[in-house]
Amino acid sequence: MSIGSNIYALRKAKKVTQAQLAEKIGVSEQAASKWENDVCAPDVSLFPVIAEYFGVSIDRLFGYHNNSYAEEVKKIIQAADDSMDTYKEIEIISEGLSRYPNSPELKIYLAFSLSMVNRFSEDADERAKAVEKAIKVCTEVVDTCGDNKQVDTALNMLNRIYGETGEYAKAHDAIQKISADNYFFRVVGTARTYGYEHNDSALKQFTQQNLFHCWLAADLNLQLLTSRLSEIGRYTESAEFGKLHLKLLSVFDDGCHDFYSTHKFFAALALAHNYRKLEDKPNCLEAIKQVFHYGTQINSAETNRDFHISARNPLYFSNINDCEAMEEYISRIPYEAMLSSFDKFFSCDEEYIRLKKIAIE
Fold this sequence. Notes:
This protein has three domains: 3-61, 434 Repressor (Amino-terminal Domain); 80-198, Serine Threonine Protein Phosphatase 5, Tetratricopeptide repeat (Alpha Horseshoe); 211-360, no CATH class. It has helices at residues 3-14, 18-25, 29-36, 47-54, 58-61, 66-83, 86-99, 104-120, 124-144, 148-164, 168-176, 183-197, 200-231, 235-249, 261-277, 281-300, 309-312, 314-317, 335-338, 340-346, 350-360. Helices cover 73% and strands 0% of the residues. The protein contains 21 helices and no strands. Helix 8 (104-120) packs antiparallel against helix 9 and helix 13 (200-231) runs antiparallel to helix 14. It is mainly α.
């Protein structure tokens, strides 16, 4: 990459305009534009000024040692980890920031270590200074870093710091600014803030709502994955994920043994087909037994007609009033058609014949 391209990349990472860069360096906006478009290069006397403004070495300004920069930051963080002492961590990271003042990774690590001082120090003044500095470095990342992942991490850290210091409105605000890509931080941060606030009813409802959404997303993802693996002939992998799928679908059985039985029914049927293709009769027969088991639940449970999740499983989801279950029930299970592909595979297997007869009757 040219020096112009490097200046452009550093400017974007710092979240400043060409006009702001030009003003800080003491040149015209047109000059900055020419640099970035490789029309001309900065005067050699400006190299130290530009490098200092971006917090990088002159070598990095020219595109040299970009990889070594990342490696050096990793080494600094590893040294801090290895120290096993919070104050030593702060010392090591602070020294690293003197060499790489724009590193978001080092700033976020420093904020974490400072937040730990706030947790254990008995000196109120020390705690206050640690919190102030932690907020400052996280805010710098949010305001100047062009990497959304690092910004989200800094916002998540701010959420924790504000929550621990009782500034709940700011804690919620930090979470709301996290990008939609980082759903994990948004969910955990919101729940954490409700916990800090001792808002137990909001925490329970929020947890139940997101527990169901995350569970349902995992259900559908596993369904899609096992189906695709089977399509391309990777039956062993599909069977392994299929077993995991059935475990997932059974996690709420304590609250309602027939919760989402239709999903369990089709997951067991898909697993049976995978074992059939693997010519694994014992496991295939066990999967078919599960198919019949869930089919019995579907046919017999009156509660299956209620599609509201809180009615379907009141133990875990009693607080959810705005989330309808997304389950479709079968009025009559066509076992004859569904199991036809297994007849030849099991041939004269007495147990299979007995189970099928019971199911059809």
